[in-house]
Amino acid sequence: MFSKTKLFLTIGLSLLLLLIAFSGYRINALSRQQVQIMEDYSTVNSIAFGILSINKWEEKITTIVEKQIQQFSFTPEQRVELQKEVEKMLHAMIDKAMSNLTKKQTSIKGKIRKAAVNVFVDEDQLHDQVPGFAKTIVDQVNKPSTKKTLKNLAEDKLDEVKETTFDSSMVAQRKVTNAIFSKYGARNSTGFKKKTDKLFADIRYESYAYTLVVFACILLLLALWKYFIDHQELQKSLFIFSLLAAGVVLIVGVSSVMIEVEARLEKIDFHLMGEHLIFEDQVLFFQSKSIMDVVVILLKNAKIDSIVVGLLILTFSVFFPLGKLISSGLYLLRESSRKNKFVHFFAFKSGKWSMADVMVVAIMLTYIGMNSMLTSQLAVLNIKEDNITSIATNNTSLQPGYMVFVLFVVFALILSEILNRITKKIAEISS
């Protein structure tokens, strides 16, 4: 009876372990894929390529100015104001011309010219004709052919400004963005955003789905323990499979992304010449790391203090938990190992030396602290004024890797209690 139960249990646990391993692999792969997409997204939408780019400003301002030139036209009120200004200019010109012509002359030619002006030119009559001249000028300016000429002149001047404000670094920027667009099969930033938004949504859905699968499998293992805890013949098999499952969960937890920190200007809107000059999704900062990523970065650093910290994290958050799992299995399976000091230490006393639970708390505190800090700092960038409006957002979030790591910590504690209970029963039977 028990042999059949043990066989079916072994087959079931093997399938369960395979499901945990596959789900863990997918969680890790999806987290890496998400990081890569987010890094590409941050590059394309970096403030260096956006609001801090001279060429980006030039493109947006040029678009607004070109639109203003194409829509150039006088309203009735503007025609009246323009005519008044032209009249002022004509009156001033007449006054200046008459002043120059009627001033005291010393040469014979100048005296003859002055006499002719006094005889043939009536200054008051000229001033009376100014409104008519001004109206004719305004009518000429408002003709389609004249407006077209003015638009061409304005566009020529605008092209000159564009050439003088060109930033050579933009060529390199465009190469980078075009390469990323090609990678995702997008033609422009709008298409790229649509592609990445869909990818983000799909990845998040899959990641959390596989995370739930891992949680469900661990809960099923615990349910099996509750049912078979008193069956000594099945305890060893169930415990070994539980240790293997815990090992898989640990590896997934430390290698998958745990926290994602992102700050961005979601929208900044400048009001210029009656138009909206808008920058969207300007990424200020992005960082996403797993425990192993942090360890690798610290170990690659040439500074001795960074290397020491990296080794400490690797030892107490990876090696110690793995040592505890292996020693627990040896302690249960091999009676001779129970007398080994190292096995006994790792099986029962290494818990207080392991930093796995400390890492859980540290990451949570980092998340809370970073979230609060970024939220408070970005709040300053949220501006609502007549000429500018901006919205800054903090997208810091804990990732499935963190949840899996928390699951390992809790599961490892429960397995320690189970091992204590099993060994006590074995000791009672032996005595």
UniProtKB/TrEMBL annotation:
It comes from Olivibacter oleidegradans. This is Paraquat-inducible protein A. Pfam families: PqiA. InterPro entries: PqiA-like. The keyword Membrane applies. The keyword Transmembrane helix applies. Keywords: Membrane, Transmembrane, Transmembrane helix. The chain crosses the membrane at residues 207-225, 237-259, 307-333, 354-380, 400-419.
